[in-house]
Amino acid sequence: MNIILIQMRTNILSMKKIFIPILITPVLIIFTAFFILPVAQLAVKSVQGPHIFSTYVTMLTTDRYLETLFYTVILSLGVTLVTVIISGISGVFLQRNEFYGKNILVAMLTFPLAFPGVVVGFMIILLAGRQGLIGNVSKAISGEKIVLAYSMAGLFLGYIYFSIPRVITTVMAAAEKIDPRLEEAALSLGASTWQVTRDVLVPALSPALVSAGAICFATAMGAFGTAFTLATDIDVLAVVIYTEFTLSANITMASALSIFLGIITWGVLSLARLSTGETLAASG
Amino acid sequence: MRLMKKQTHLFYAQLTLTLLMCVFLIVPVIQSVMAGVTVNYFVGIKSGLTLKWLKEVWRLYSDTIFRSIYIGLTCLAVDIITGIPAAYVMVKCKNRLTRVIEELLVIPLAIPGLAIALGILICYGRWTTFRMSWFIILAGHVIFTLPFMIRSVIAVMSSFNMLEMEEGAASLGAGFWNRFFEIVIPNAKSGILAGSLMVFTLSIGEFNLTWMLHTPLTKTLPVGLADSYASMRLEIGSAYTIVFFFMIIPILMAMQWIGKSKSKFSDKPAWLDRIRRPQQVMKVRHCGVAHLQETRFSDKQSIIHLTSMKKLRQYRSHPLTPETSSGNLTGDTKTGISIRVKNCSKTFPDGTRALNSTNLSVEGGESIVILGPSGCGKTTILRIIAGLEMPDSDGKVFFEDEDVTKIPIENRNVGMVFQSYALFPNMNVADNIAYGLKVRGDVLKNRQRRVDEMLEMMQIAELKYRNINQLSGGQKQRVALARAIAIRPRVLLLDEPLTALDAKLRDVLRIEIEHLLKFIGITSIYVTHDQSEAMALGDRIVVMKKGGIAQVGTPREIYFKPANRFVAEFIGAINRIKCRVEGDKLVFPYNNIRLNDATNITLAKEEELEIFFRPEHVTIAETGTGHLEVTVDSAIFTGDRTQLVVSDIFKNLIRMEAPGKITFRKGESIEIRLDSTALFTMEE
Questions:
Q1: Is B115 close to A241, i.e. CB distance below 8 A?
Q2: pTM beyond cutoff 0.80
Q3: Complex ipTM, two decimals?
Q4: d(CA B68, CA B61)
Q5: Chain A closest CA to B447's CA: distance in Å?
Q6: CATH numeric code, B573-678
């Protein structure tokens, strides 16, 4: 009797082997069907042409695409740099100081976290559009209406608007984990506030800053909603992909641009992940 | 001080920057709200306030709002059903497959939604029914949001010791699905909730994918927003934006609330609170019932009661077997079952050999302590006996004559106490204790009786309905013991149960456990690296070294007749000096020792012998009566005695003790005498 029972029971290790596929299969199916296959299709489409890389060669030799690529990268880099610096300062400041109204300030700074790109675009139109606040104020002051929304500056503002809440929350979470005694120790050793910031705070924050910056860059590279709403005179990569696909019906070029864009952003995120040695915090 | 320092121009500069950012972010929000309720935005507020734009939005776009909500909810359901199991597997098994999936989870963050949508269109666009329905949008949203759900759940699952908690549940008899639904999911609740809010928000606001995938009949909220912005009526766009704000504000508030409550209920140890409230008034206890109040004293005081044998006898008099299906204890509770470990070795997948081929037998009712430094394989052997590890292929474990090697822990009926307690934070004290019985299918009445019995035995009746995170370390340890014993296990296994406690509490609980084990009469195996625990608790001690057994014996045998130098040096302090043998004498500078008196000395071929003795076998001698003269190197007064380190003329250090009333000076010469019967020799 005992022997039969023993045979029926399986050990804990072999049980794992049975249950793991059951638990993981649904995710694998979804990812294969709606991510791996589609991206593979994109890749296949992108190499259709006279020879394998002809689309990519066209892409890298046509001025319009190169210009777009250049603008998108410069814009994303600029947005990343500015956002990381100002949100970094502000995030640490909010984490380290208690003052009246701080909670409201934090709530306001993180409110736009849930805004889709289109809403951000609309916000920029309201702020810097033809009837925007900046225009009205500048008209009242200097008599000249400043309209930023539909240019590179508008995109720049929009992407910063989009990125600030994300970076600030990451920085605040990271700053919370830094032991304040480290700073106190540095102060007790005679370091100035600037030296403490340079030698203690920034190094401790750097993994968070790098990963937040990488996400910021990747998001800016692929952002579509804001640029779509602003309908600026400068085309960014995402908009070009969209127009190639819908207006020109140039699926091959749209695919090649998508793959190219994906490789850049994925590469940047992977680099950040390698350099910080940790997984990237979730962000959109 | 620090606060004062910060109120400088630097503080104000930072504040200004933050305020400017705030203005930048919030002014357009206010503008849009104003525009949405103003009759004519270009004229301004003077044109009057109205709700007509909101009504207009409702008329034009309400379908997009509802569609977004049900796509969001369906997406959430898919993410929960597929994401939570995946997160669990990824936390639990680290192998190539899970690493690939982890990498896959990053890619949807990296590859822009537009590109993914393009791929989906190319792939599935020709399936018209699918293409025209909102399911294609759902597919995109699931791919986009699933990584967030999985990451959020993984973060929480890694923050509590899921593996050990599951092992705890398995030791109480819970099978896989039971553990998954009753331990893993309830404890990952905060991560699931945070992930859910995130997923829903992202799905509601997703534009990039959706814009590519939508059809005129499957517009969602952001698509509607884009349409309204393109309609050239700023007021309608603004009014729709207001609607969007109203939808996301509750979600954002819920997210903040979760974030706050998470930090509030973080597993901050209970003693921290107590340190902050030092003047706890101790309650008077009455009627012989110990009130375990939240003071540090509570743990120590209850010993008076627990060691009152009456309670323990009472416990023993309870029928241990009849009404339980699982109780394999024989009628005589004094003799538990015997355990045999045969040729068990353990090599981990990475090639590390944790345990060399080992044999060990434990008699029924015996308390065995496995003692050794960290990394010696003591926990591995315990986990093999428990059923948490499989020994390498030729190893076998027997309970009595039953070969249990292939039986998983949940069917072995062993009680296990873990170093970190592995109590389930999603259940209170009583539920923790009752869990093993519940898994076994005991009826409620029996469970309640058994829980009360256990609570009384462990003197923690007052804690019955407490949450686990409200307990002190000692209280947690008692609950863990009660939970393990409640199931009437065949064997009780304790894995360094006192290591996490402070020294004084450890002493108290050690004595309690000693009494408990003796009186239940259960076969027990106790793993520790603390020799005093081993001495106090073990009928026999197994000393382990580098994956093998160095010696098995009673505490006395181990102490007085260590089998080798490792054991001698690991248990207590040991002195060693070299001395010459001449004829039938051991030669010392002052007086010699006759070999006939030194019964534990084994002669070697060489003339010079290395002899060993314990500090307590050295005494200070009157001048002329000692064996050798030494110089005091250090003297530490500990109250009742003084611990001395002295050195002989060859600079051999000797540790010894002297009565506390004698004072010593450094460099002082004293004559010492060795207890000739306690001298021994040892092999390498």
A1: yes
A2: no
A3: 0.85
A4: 11
A5: 26
A6: 2.40.50.140
